[in-house]
Amino acid sequence: MGKRNFSQEELAAALASMGVTDQTDVSRYGSGHINDTFKVETARGETFILQRVNTDIFPPETLKANILRVTSHLKSKGIKSLEVVGYENPWRLYAFLKGCKSIDVVSKPEEAYLAAKAFANFQNDLADLPSPRLGDIIPKFHDTVDRLRQLDEAAAKDVKGRKALVEKELAFVDARRNEASKIVSMLSSGEIPERITHNDTKINNVMFAEDGSMVVIDLDTTMPGSALYDFGDMVRTSTAAAAEDEKDLSKVYSKKDYFESLVKGYLEGAKFLTDAEKKLLAFSGRLITLTIGIRFLTDYLAGDVYFRTAYEDHNLVRCHTQFKMVESMEAQAAEYEEIVRKYSL
To answer: Across the chain, where does the E strand assignment appear?
Structure first.
């Protein structure tokens, strides 16, 4: 999915609809795959983030309602969060978080620790969000069983004639199908609770402020889910030794010391976790990494219709890194389980 090109007139009209008419510069910003994001500078010296929501992926009215409820709730508790300046679908305007920075790849264990604590606190801070239940932005988003169904459908349709090229990858998935339903089944049975979760817990979704505080951003997939999905995605991204689209798989593995930092930070913040959830923390990393790999593989088979790609096999390269990460986590499973037990005491 390529980026849309917007004329200066279109951008100016979007800004005007939200009360900004003195922009001096509007330029592409960030590395997100889904929405179109711009940094806006104004003659008054103000800075904003302008986004056009990808309405092919996100239900615009449900998303708007969720974002406004979440940010308002955090603000009411004095918690620093994204500040919505204007929201006129499909455009929205945020105040720029000055004095904050983000990183794309965790470079030291301390960063993993801080990110884990930030997301744990985010879950804590939203635990008392008043009814009604938040809307489901993308139903069954981390539901591995449903992701397998979508993969099977994409493989059966084979719209781009790519199935013959990924028989090894499909076999990798088949060998791990038996565990795919564990978290989904436990949520359904009530063995683990539904919580309000972020659902995209990459390190670059935490902004680090100069005063030491942290702000969780990119709230588009904040909705009901499992805390295990959030922690699992932290393991997938924050323990990775290489980028998500690294072509040299010898560089791709899960770093144990970073995993330990994640567990320490998350369990310090997530005091709400049940024993059943704690027992699944190490497993959740493997499952979510497999699930994301399945999503990349599905999109590759479907013709690259969801994730933005820079070249023809980009989604397949991403799939390969995820599956290599799964293998690395499997090889260290006993050690990872012991780390969780150590910090669960």
So the answer is: 23-28, 36-42, 47-52, 84-88, 91-95, 100-101, 195-197, 206-209, 214-216, 223-225
Residue 208 has φ and ψ, to the nearest 5°, of: -100, 120
List the end-to-end C-alpha distance of the chain, in Å, as a whole number: 46
Phi, psi dihedral angles at 200 (to 5 degrees): -155, 65
* 115-173 confidence digits (pLDDT tens): 999 999 999 999 999 999 999 999 999 999 999 999 999 999 999 999 999 999 999 99
Q: What contacts 33, CB < 8 A, 6 or more positions away?
A: 307, 308
H/E stretch holding 116 reads helix 109-126
* Whether the Cβ atoms of residue 137 and residue 198 lie closer than 8 Å to each other: no
What local confidence, expressed as pLDDT, does residue 200 receive? 93
Return d(Cα 270, Cα 201) in angstroms, integer: 14
Secondary structure letter of residue 179 according to DSSP: G
Asked whether residue 33 carries a pLDDT value surpassing 80, the answer given is: no
Is residue 154 within 8 A of residue 298, CB to CB? The reply is yes
**Token digits for 175?**
């060998």
Structure tokens given for 41:
């500078």
- Crossing angle (nearest 10°) for helices 333-344 and 281-302: 130
Amino acid at 191: E
pTM, full prediction = 0.89
Q: Give which of 138, 99, 123 is closest to 197, Cα–Cα.
A: 123
Q: Scan for tokens 């909705």, then name that residue.
A: 223
